[in-house]
Amino acid sequence: xxxxxxxxxxxxxxxxxxxxxxxxxxxxxxxxxxxxxxxxxxxxxxxxxxxxxxxxxxxxxxxxxxxxxxxxxxxxxxxxxxxxxxxxxxxxxxxxxxxxxxxxxxxxxxxxxxxxxxxxxxxxxxxxxxxxxxxxxxxxxxxxxxxxxxxxxxxxxxxxxxxxxxxxxxxxxxxxxxxxxxxxxxxxxxxxxxxxxxxxxxxxxxxxxxxxxxxxxxxxxxxxxxxxxxxxxxxxxxxxxxxxxxxxxxxxxxxxxxxxxxxxxxxxxxxxxxxxxxxxxxxxxxxxxxxxxxxxxxxxxxxxxxxxxxxxxxxxxxxxxxxxxxxxxxxxxxxxxxxxxxxxxxxxxxxxxxxxxxxxxxxxxxxxxxxxxxxxxxxxxxxxxxxxxxxxxxxxxxxxxxxxxxxxxxxxxxx
Length: 415
Ligand SMILES: *Cc1c(COP(=O)(O)O)cnc(C)c1O
Hints:
12 helices
């Protein structure tokens, strides 16, 4: 599509946008009496208006049933996780049995590594992104140490080639080839939180498997942002949070994927009573019998209130028509943002790949020495986006609640 850098053109794109009404399904923060432009859905998604009702529903349920709420009524808490798995599965491209909603992201990363990282003196390395999200770095380092290995020799960090901002798939594959069977686990973000680069998860998974390594993805920035096919890509495990593009609230409940091919592997795991066979759970007997599928990785009592918040937001994705529909608008929205930024008299240095297949809804703009001033100006003008040290402004227009007109306005303010 040929874009024009005018408000009228942006408005014409909004008029043709079949998702435009979904804006009204969210509460948007205000700035100086008018709606802020919220480009921070990659950090904390907006609150769906349905969330309050969903929480109230569970509070009423609790009021009405007390402990009986686990079994009684139309929506007993005991099977709540099943509904969430059904709603979340298409978003990550999985079968419902491969998905479990529980805990928080870094906790789930540890749980998955407990099952999928078993270093031996031959095969002990973890391949990850240089400058990965700090929580992932800390989690990986601590796992390596728990197993008695040394982070400096057991963690390989991928760095972009000289002069590049992003990694190239062929270089990642080359490292996997070179390291061969010393790699126990390849663990990458689906989308890098800093650069916004979307990795070729299918190719990376195939390369790692050809060398006998397990593969896991941290989908924090990919889930609810781009369509995913965890099952078909043969990924071993994945984890994600739900408060970014999935709008499930601050510290909201997280998700984990375990590929079906591992269900009968009798993998070691950190167990708890909530992962124990549901039909036997309340017999309170010795001897852990895992529930079938990813549900067997549950540990603790279901978090009903965060579940309710997550369900409300997952239902919006479903009502919108799913990830393919969201993605279609996201591609256009991001391309339009890139276009208006490039129209500026002093073009911005966007480090996110310009190919749409290699990015999601975020553009990371590398600023010069006045970057923080520019960011503060945006904030003062009512744009909520984020600043990443040392010099990056991340802009994330998201299809559920952002408009083309907002993109155009941000472009003008940036210019
Ligand atoms: C947001 C994010 C996290 C946050 O982890 P929590 O356990 O939810 O605090 C971790 N890793 C990545 C890659 C993220 O983007």
